[in-house]
Design goal:
Layout lengths: L6 H9 L6 E9 L3 H16 L6 E7 L14 E7 L2 H9 L1 H4 L2 H7 E9 L8
Antiparallel strand pairs: 1-3, 1-4, 2-3
């Protein structure tokens, strides 16, 4: 299973940019013992990269009892991270210094969803 964005994924992500800030939904499933590696990654992200690229964690929490889910649709952790733009996220993941720590995330995860979200208009029914 893929846990990291690939070049083609990033190109499509940028091509579909509606403009403005983006909130990235992160659904994470850890490998056995992977939580420690992810914690190291998260600490590096918080300390060195989020402010550099104008990002902030809106929510981070552990998965709990799924109320509506098929088998295998439960997650160990959920994060919402806001970036000022899709381009800012893309620049961060391309940063050579970030590339030196991203292996911690890759090693930690057995499965992940990383999905850009767009806000609903205020006049939604």
């Amino acid at each position: 299973m893929a846990v990291d964005p690939r070049g083609a994924d990033l190109k499509r992500y940028l091509a579909e940019d509606p403009g403005g800030p983006v909130v990235m939904l992160n659904l994470l499933r850890f490998r056995e013992g992977g939580q420690d590696s992810y914690d190291q990654y998260a600490a590096a992200l918080e300390k060195r990269f989020l402010s550099r690229y104008g990002a902030r964690v809106l929510y981070a929490g552990s998965g709990s009892t799924p109320l509506v889910a098929e088998p295998g649709q439960d997650w160990d952790a959920v994060l919402l991270v806001q970036y000022p733009s899709r381009e800012a996220f893309s620049r961060m993941v391309a940063d050579p210094e970030y590339q030196q720590v991203t292996h911690l995330r890759t090693e930690a995860l057995s499965e992940a969803v990383l999905q850009a979200t767009t806000p609903w208009p205020d006049e939604r029914p």
